[in-house]
Design goal:
This protein is an alpha+beta fold. It contains 4 helices and 6 strands; from the N terminus they run αβββαββααβ.
Length: 138
């Protein structure tokens, strides 16, 4: 094998392995999961992970944030982007957009999905968020 062919083969294998390892944002595959984590970063560059229940509705992932988690998202220096850990995968630069117009729908979906929601539903949840992968992710 020529040196050029060997280099081409190595580069092709490396490109293929990098592409194969990239996680895919596939909400429909996560509908039966129960929790995800979001990472925010504060002014002091400290990372905070919040574990949240989520629902998938109309192809999007939604979370309902309690007071502490809402403050972390609102003060996130990378806003509107967070890191998300879901189904064993980590996604960087996921948009966390306020979706308070979806609060009622998300509350209903949470009550269907999580029987224990009856204990948490009426606690303060000042922010409902839609999570969407950045446009450059597949």
């Amino acid at each position: 094998m020529s040196r050029a062919a060997a280099i081409f083969l190595c580069l092709s294998l490396m490109a293929g392995s990098v592409h194969a390892e990239r996680p895919r944002w596939t909400p429909e595959e996560w509908e039966d999961g129960s929790t995800l984590q979001i990472q925010t970063i504060d002014d002091a560059q400290e990372e905070h992970w919040s574990t949240l229940w989520y629902v998938v509705y109309a192809g999007d992932v939604y979370v309902r944030l309690g007071t502490a988690a809402a403050e972390l998202v609102e003060q996130n220096i990378k806003s509107p982007y967070v890191k998300v850990r879901i189904a064993g995968q980590i996604f960087s630069d996921v948009r966390a957009d306020p979706a308070n117009d979806m609060t009622e729908t998300v509350n209903e979906e949470m009550s269907y999905k999580y029987p224990l929601d009856v204990l948490f539903r009426y606690m303060p949840h000042p922010l409902t968020v839609r999570l969407r992968a950045a446009s450059f992710q597949f």
